[in-house]
From TrEMBL:
Belongs to the glycosyl hydrolase 43 family. The keyword Signal applies. InterPro entries: GH43_arabinanases, Glyco_hydro_43, Glyco_hydro_beta-prop_sf. The lineage of its organism: Eukaryota, Fungi, Dikarya, Ascomycota, Pezizomycotina. GO terms for biological process: carbohydrate metabolic process. Pathway: Glycan metabolism; L-arabinan degradation. It comes from Aspergillus pseudonomiae. The keyword Membrane does not apply. Keywords: Glycosidase, Hydrolase, Signal. This is Glycosyl hydrolase. CDD domains: GH43_AnAbnA-like.
Length: 480
């Protein structure tokens, strides 16, 4: 029989005593006083707030490995309790960020997204051979494949075999890819840039097979530095966020690009899509511009067609770096659109205001206090079974606000008087996939306890099996 030393667990300043207790747990056969459960619970809570739970968990497990069965069982149970506390008390990124009240819009004007079940910032999706292919920014431009927009997604390759041949910073992690099928080949336009600068370039790669065999052709458009960067509009624009459209009447291909500075531009492409048509004197058009204010947060353009209109989509507002602070509600990313019967514009919103004068209808925005800063969008054209699909990335306020937290969302589009409206199709909560790691962890935990409780004599070697199982449980639970 052993007696635990008495400690005051009532204040957060007792962490030194907590460590003393844990040392005693290890050295004195693990007798954490189960006769004083309230104190144990307080210890759990204090260590949660002090973010010391991992140390508690491992100390208890390590001490358990050399105890008799009864003491070991007690420590396993206590360890599991602390592990649960670790999961519950681990602060989300939200809790570490200060934000003023009323940052997240709770409006229900917009539907919840259908979830794509993949993290993707600036996603681009192509439908080919009854499969969906998703391209996203990242190392060498990763490619994912699925039979459904809701996944599961399988990585099948990358566009680039290594760094881009474009000689600019950040060329190992291209941004915002746009992939199109054109005359039997696939072309991927990608961005090489860094935050807050105009020293950017749009490159292009091509292949005969969407999953492999890509050839990097290098830069198509340069701004600030590089070939023809002195030519207008490259002198006032930023060469990022490329998108593609072809004139429905003539077949002439066009590239849209741009961000902040002077807005979004369009230039005609050569028929092979590997260069700008008449590169030294491109027939450029300014399609989106905010004449007043600085900064001018319009970017991420995409153009779709639904007879008789071309729709120019773009993202408006602050897209990222929310770890540095949140903007006033309504100034984060939102998805806007204008339309024109001419691929070259002018594009106007529902009120007839041109996009070059700051116009644009909001089609999708932050909503329900959960969906935040949707943007980086694209539109899949309707097929024989489904209408047009608006897809985008968004942040879930219960998950986090870093670049890697961006999630794929999508909604079908209806058109009211020729204006697109995002349609809700499913319950947001119901789309959350089961946490299989949690399920496996729970099964391992039950196996562990069953082994401990078996009415047989335990040896040291026998006791190590449930110990190993519980360690595996911990890793799955924490990293699942």
């Amino acid at each position: 029989m052993c007696t635990a030393p008495r400690h005051d667990f009532s204040t957060q300043e007792c962490w030194g005593e907590t460590l003393a207790l844990l040392r005693w747990v290890s050295e004195d056969r693990g007798c954490l006083s189960v006769r004083e459960p309230r104190k144990a619970i307080k210890l759990w809570g204090i260590s949660s707030r002090q973010r010391q739970l991992p140390r508690v968990f491992w100390r208890l497990l390590i001490s358990s490995s050399r105890l008799r069965a009864t003491a070991m069982l007690r420590n396993y149970i206590i360890s599991l309790a602390w592990l649960l506390g670790m999961v519950q008390a681990a602060p989300s990124e939200n809790s570490k960020l200060h934000h003023p009240p009323n940052v997240f819009s709770k409006t229900d004007k917009y539907p919840f997204p259908n979830q794509g079940h993949i993290h993707a910032h600036d996603p681009n999706i192509v439908q080919h051979d009854n499969k969906f292919y998703l391209f996203k920014g990242g190392i060498q431009v990763p490619i994912f494949k699925s039979s459904s927009l809701s996944g599961p997604w399988t990585k099948v390759g990358t566009v680039l075999d290594g760094p881009s041949v474009i000689d600019k910073q950040n060329r190992t992690r291209p941004w915002a890819p746009t992939t199109v099928e054109w005359k039997g080949k696939f072309y991927c336009f990608y961005t090489i840039s860094q935050d807050g600068v105009r020293n950017s370039a749009i490159g292009v790669a091509s292949t005969d097979s969407i999953e492999s065999g890509w050839t990097d052709h290098g830069g198509l458009i340069y701004t600030e530095k590089g070939p023809l960067a002195h030519v207008w509009p490259y002198t006032v624009s930023n060469a990022i966020d490329a998108s593609f459209i072809a004139d429905q009447q003539t077949g002439q291909p066009y590239l849209q690009f741009g961000s902040y500075w002077h807005g979004i531009f369009q230039v005609p492409l050569a028929d092979d899509l590997l260069s700008v048509k008449n590169p030294e004197h491109p027939a450029a058009k300014n399609l989106v511009h905010l004449p007043d204010g600085n900064p001018k947060p319009d970017e991420g353009s995409f153009m779709s067609y639904k007879e008789p209109y071309y729709y120019l989509w773009f993202s408006h507002g602050k897209c990222c770096q929310f770890n540095k602070g949140f903007p006033t509600m309504g100034q984060e990313y939102s998805i806007r659109v204008g339309r024109s019967k001419d691929v070259r514009g002018p594009f106007v919103d529902k009120q007839g205001k041109e996009l070059t004068e700051g116009g644009g209808n909001t089609v999708y925005d932050s909503n329900h206090g959960i969906v935040y800063a949707p943007g980086g969008l694209g539109v899949l054209p309707a097929n024989t079974t489904d209408p047009d699909v608006l897809y985008y990335h968004y942040l879930n306020t219960s998950v986090g606000f870093s670049h890697g937290d961006a999630l794929l969302g999508w909604n079908y589009l209806d058109y009211e008087d020729g204006w697109p409206v995002a349609r809700g199709t499913e319950n947001f909560a119901a789309t959350v996939r089961p946490n299989y790691s949690f399920i496996v962890a729970a099964i391992l935990c039950m196996c562990c306890l069953a082994l401990i409780l078996l009415p047989v004599r335990f040896t040291g070697q026998r006791l190590m099996l449930p110990f190993i199982l519980l360690v595996a449980t911990g890793f799955l639970w924490l990293h699942g």
